[in-house]
Specification:
The chain is of the alpha/beta class and about 100 residues long. It is built from four helices and three strands. It has helices at about 30-35, 50-55, 70-75, 90-95, and strands at about 40, 65, 80-85. A three-stranded parallel sheet has the order 1-2-3. The relative contact order is 0.27.
């Protein structure tokens, strides 16, 4: 895919303010509303449609995720978020959107 980001930054440089919440129910609405950048299933291994990206986008939160599966249809690279090909680029893409 052309236009996919390479935002190299070692994963160990994530800030203490970064939180991974896992699977959530209705409580996610308030949490997403306070989120600066949504990280939708960074490996893409367990989500084929991309509903987590839609959850973030529907509340105006930019999304960072891997360029595969349904995320190619639910995240518009450089408009609604950033897509990457290699998980080593995850942290750099998050920082770029912050």
């Amino acid at each position: 895919m052309t236009g996919v980001q390479t935002c190299a930054l070692p994963i160990c440089e994530l800030l203490p303010s970064v939180h991974f919440h896992g699977v959530m129910g209705e409580e996610k609405k308030e949490l997403i509303a306070r989120t600066s950048v949504g990280v939708a299933n960074p490996s893409g291994r367990t989500e084929t449609f991309g509903i987590s990206a839609i959850d973030f986008s529907s509340r105006g939160v930019p999304v960072v995720t891997i360029a595969s599966g349904g995320f190619l249809d639910t995240v518009e690279n450089e408009k609604t978020g950033l897509l990457y090909n290699d998980t080593k680029d995850l942290a750099g893409c998050i920082v770029r959107l912050l």
